[in-house]
Protein 1
Amino acid sequence: RQRQMCIRDRVYVIDDDGLFAGVVAGSDLSESNGNGTATIADLVHSSASVVVASDTVENAVRAILAAGTNRLPVVRSTDDQFLMGTVAAVDLLRAVNMALLNADAEVKIR
């Protein structure tokens, strides 16, 4: 059995253990709307990009840019695909901005 976690234009699919199984795009859902026989398993993209909880902000930014999206699922580790949540590009931008501001303030103090 698979469960779904809907985030804006995509649905993250997890199994009964909370492990990330893939993503279904909102466009795929709307295209299959008239087809009463389609299941989530038919629509899920299991090779979806993810961010690992221990990734650096830099790696997460690179992953989002490479995926061409504004949000990615966050899993516990590469071996443990437990879905912990999501990270958005805007959150990463804030983190980078704060790091730059803090670095600038440090330089001015010296």
Protein 2
Amino acid sequence: DLGNQLHIEAQITHESTLALELAEGREVVALIKAGWLTVQPALQGCPPGRNHLPGRVEQVLTEEDGPHEVRISLGNGQTLCALVEGQRFVEGQQVHACFAPSLVLLGTPL
């Protein structure tokens, strides 16, 4: 649960569940690399079986020779950064950040 009715699913091995001592209510940190995110216009949505986080494009950092960095503001106050090629987004645009549960890396606070 990310707060503000946002949640994600993670797919991890049984061994990792034991090593991280995961249990209901245990606090975890979820990481997703910027290059693993797919950004879709809000009306298009995400493919079935993918995590989807709705948000608003906060900033687009354009690169001449590589992917653009798209910063997405989520409803819970957090910001996602995605690397996007071949698509154009504008500040203020409503979008979905999409990613597979298998791409979520989990950790526990020290």
